Amino acid sequence: MAYRRINQPKLSDVIVKELEKMVLEGSLKPGQKLPPERELAVQFEVSRPSLREAIQKLEAKGVLTRRQGGGTYVKQQLWNSLSDPLVELLANNPESQYDLLEFRHATEGMMAYYAALRGTDADHASMRRKVQIIKEVQGNHEEESKAIVDFYGSVAEASHNVAMLHLVLSLAPLLRRNIAENLELLYRREGSSEVANTHREALVEAILKREPEKARQASNDHLAYIEEVTLEVRREDSRQQRSLRRMRNDLI
User: How many domains, the chain?
Assistant: First the structure.
């Protein structure tokens, strides 16, 4: 009987696969700096030349980037698939904001569902921290929108679905803009921030109790409330503008 030779994988290729896995899982995030080469070689228990070769391969793939005298980073543009001009176009179109809310109904509800099924204790602790940060920065729309996107990122991580995680990462600029605009409208309705906090707490509670359907429903209830309030505030603005136009016409 003839036996085929078993080819051992090249060590640098093994390192490449491990680093790619860390990027996919979100252990290495966009723009994050890798540990120094010597430290990383010790952690992987490999030689520095093999590690250096792996990093060069990932640079060629566009996954990592080196900064002169500043170390090696996960490439920021890896997730920036939505360009700034597109973000501006969508942000300046009121109708697209509701399209995005519909999209969020589907994706965030699904993330919540799987987070309730698969989330670990570490995931749960991360979500609790992110919810607390939202409360601490409430009132500052820019910081609050960033904190809310970070919270949804933690829900995506808890879903343990890399496609969902990277969808959130790629949409982060658009989500932050959408959420900031929603916050401006929500804060014009007294008590709306407290209601939003209650919705998020119900979402986290359902995930912690591993109740996927309740988690999905909590997510949908939250987004339905946002849509209802923002629509009503916009209608009020429209009515006021019509009244002002009539007043100006009466004065002419």
Answer: 2
Q: What does the alpha-carbon distance between residue 15 and residue 20 come to, in Å, rounded to a whole number?
A: 9
Q: Which DSSP helix (H) or strand (E) runs through 57?
A: helix 48-61
Assign residue 129 the CATH number of its domain.
1.20.120.530
Q: What is the CA radius of gyration of the chain?
A: 23
For 64, list phi and psi in degrees, rounded to 5. Answer: -115, 160
Q: What is the pLDDT of residues 147-174, one digit of tens each?
A: 999 999 999 999 999 888 888 888 888 8
Please name which of 17, 75, 6, 66 lies closest in space to residue 46, comparing C-alpha atoms: 17
Q: Are residues 116 and 214 in the same domain?
A: yes
Tokens read off for 17? 């696969």
Distance in angstroms (rounded) separating the CA atoms of residues 208 and 225:
23
Residue 79 placed within a domain: no
- 216 and 99 share one domain: yes
Map tokens 């030349």 to a residue: 49
Q: What residues have CB less than 8 Å from 72, skipping those under 6 apart?
A: 33, 34, 37, 55, 64, 65, 66
Chain length of the chain? 252
| Domain hosting residue 173, numbered range | 85-238
**94 and 214 assigned to the same domain:** yes
Provide the whole-model pTM: 0.70
pLDDT in tens, 27-85: 888 888 999 989 999 999 999 999 999 999 988 888 888 887 788 998 876 655 444 55
Beta carbons of 73 and 33 less than 8 angstroms apart: yes
Name the CA dihedral angle for 61, 63, 67, 71, rounded to a multiple of 10 degrees. -120
